[in-house]
């Protein structure tokens, strides 16, 4: 099997419900193996520039243009660049390599549906700069910034988390949770942002009623947030674009004003997941993976900081089979959201043999699978085994881009016996295909206390309290 000339390698550990799964990590490594045995090969450097001036480099090698396997070069580079854009982020792509390939990448972002989606998100929505691919041998030097995140626990604080099916809030005094509440809501396709605003304010007021004084508010939510401004967020997908610009973009700045401008921070929920794990484990180099309504990701560096990376794992390709399931938002194939979320569970149900009403919503389908797992039904275990195999290969892929020592796994998909089976299969993949990673990467799940309160404490710890 190949993808426009790029050989796709069958995994040694086959996901029982998805035999056509072709892991990104295996395709990339086989491509590099074949290139490296050549006496002559072409160096290529890709770089991404962000609005704050940060520049991130990725160097690789490809087949010479006259080589018969050079047809694979474009797919290899396009998939890596897609991964970089949603992992690291940037509005300007620098390309130092064959001009013909650079022009092909330009055309991809200007003319194809998936390329235009990425260009619009990166350029117009996230960085508010024109998106561009620049073909040049003079790439700016690498420049990165990282900063400590959270870990401020003094005083009375509110921590909140906005998910696709529920919102949570907690009151925290000097690091101790004195109140927490989880409320079901349905924000995804709500066209009026007043729904979202009312929900957040309701949760904050309830938490505040358990504090003598609100010293700081910290929150997490799916999406991209820069300086408390909403750039891209699935929670607001139902809001028309013009209404988004007027009422959503600065919603959290408005909320801050309503709370007397106390120190306030909202960041991507994956970042808070990783922070919560780092705080709980007392470890760094943590990649947090939350499998819920979508897939969220966050990363804490070996030094205990965060970078300006996006870590939007939901959009990052993990399966290079061109016939893989497509993300309903971007339209692209093989992206993480279809492998590590309630959507993944829904995708696998038909092949599992479980009789679950297809008209049910995804949260209800997941509950039905969890109940089947409690009854030891084979169809349910096959779903979790398949997701576990996906996870093992994805973690190996992530490790090619992130310095990793710890992977924290949580979210509704990880709940119960199914979560244990997911981790068991992921570890099997590492032992079988990537023994060096099996020795260096540890998987973690939060204990019950951390599940209930860890995310809330981490979110509450985000703002530094004013003196």
Please provide a written account of the structure.
The chain is of the alpha/beta class. It has two domains: 2-144, no CATH class; 147-467, 2-Layer Sandwich (Nucleotidyltransferase, domain 5). It contains 14 helices and 19 strands. Strands 10-9-8-11-14 form a five-stranded mixed β-sheet, with helices on both faces. α3 packs across α4 (113-127), α8 packs across α14 and α9 packs across α10. It is globular, with a radius of gyration of 22 Å.
List keywords for this structure.
five-stranded mixed sheet; Nucleotidyltransferase, domain 5; alpha/beta; 467 residues
Write the layout of secondary structure elements.
Layout (H helix, E strand, L loop, with lengths): L1 E2 L2 E2 L16 H13 L5 E8 L5 E8 L10 H15 L4 E5 L2 H13 L1 H15 L4 E4 L10 E3 L7 E7 L3 E8 L2 E9 L9 H15 L7 E6 L2 E3 L2 E4 L8 H8 L2 H8 L5 E5 H13 L4 E6 L3 E6 L4 E3 L34 H11 L9 H13 L3 H22 L6 E5 L6 H17 L1 H6 L1 E3 L3 H13 L7
In spatial order, strands of the major sheet run: 10-9-8-11-14
Helical residue percent band: 25-40%
Using only C-alpha atoms, the radius of gyration works out to 22 Å
Class computed from helices, strands and strand pairing? alpha/beta
Summarize the structure.
The chain has 467 residues and is of the alpha/beta class. Helices cover 39% and strands 21% of the residues. It contains 14 helices and 19 strands.
């Amino acid at each position: 099997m190949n993808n426009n000339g790029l050989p796709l390698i069958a995994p040694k550990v086959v996901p029982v419900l998805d035999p056509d799964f072709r892991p990104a990590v295996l395709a990339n490594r086989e491509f590099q193996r074949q290139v490296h045995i050549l006496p002559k090969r072409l160096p290529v450097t890709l770089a991404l520039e962000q609005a704050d001036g940060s520049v991130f480099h990725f160097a690789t090698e490809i087949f010479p243009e006259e080589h018969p396997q050079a047809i694979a070069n474009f797919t290899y580079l396009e998939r890596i660049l897609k991964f970089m854009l949603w992992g690291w982020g940037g509005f300007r792509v620098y390309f130092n390599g064959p001009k013909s390939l650079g022009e092909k990448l330009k055309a991809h972002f200007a003319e194809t549906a998936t390329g235009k989606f990425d260009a619009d998100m990166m350029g117009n929505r996230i960085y508010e700069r024109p998106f561009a691919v620049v073909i040049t041998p003079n790439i700016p030097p690498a420049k990165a910034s990282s900063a400590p995140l959270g870990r401020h626990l003094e005083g009375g604080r509110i921590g909140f988390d906005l998910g696709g099916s529920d919102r949570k809030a907690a009151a925290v005094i000097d690091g101790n949770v004195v109140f927490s509440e989880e409320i079901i809501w349905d924000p995804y396709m709500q066209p009026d942002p007043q729904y979202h605003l009312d929900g957040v304010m309701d949760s904050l007021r309830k938490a505040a009623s358990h504090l003598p004084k609100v010293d700081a508010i910290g929150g997490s939510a799916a999406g991209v947030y820069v300086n408390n401004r909403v750039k891209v967020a699935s929670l607001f997908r139902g809001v028309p674009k013009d209404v988004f610009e007027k009422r959503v973009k600065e919603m959290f700045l408005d909320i801050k004003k309503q709370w007397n401008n106390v120190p306030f921070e909202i960041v991507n929920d994956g970042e808070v997941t990783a922070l919560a794990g780092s705080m709980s484990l007392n470890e760094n180099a943590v990649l947090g993976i939350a499998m819920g309504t979508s897939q969220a990701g966050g990363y804490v560096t070996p030094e205990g900081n965060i970078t300006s990376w996006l870590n939007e794992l939901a959009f990052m390709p993990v399966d290079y089979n061109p016939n893989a399931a497509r993300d309903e938002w971007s339209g692209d194939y093989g992206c993480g959201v279809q492998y590590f979320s309630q959507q993944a569970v829904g995708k696998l149900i038909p092949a599992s043999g479980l009789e679950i009403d297809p008209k049910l919503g995804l949260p209800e389908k997941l509950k039905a699978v969890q109940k089947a797992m409690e009854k030891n039904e084979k169809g349910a275990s096959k779903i979790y085994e398949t997701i576990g195999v996906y996870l093992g290969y994805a973690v190996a892929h992530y490790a090619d881009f992130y310095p990793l020592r710890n992977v924290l796994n949580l979210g509704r998909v990880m709940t119960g016996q199914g979560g244990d089976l997911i981790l068991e299969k992921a570890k099997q993949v590492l032992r079988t295909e990537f023994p060096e990673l099996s020795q260096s990467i540890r998987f973690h799940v939060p204990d019950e206390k951390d599940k209930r309160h860890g995310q809330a404490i981490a979110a509450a710890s985000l703002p530094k309290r004013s003196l």
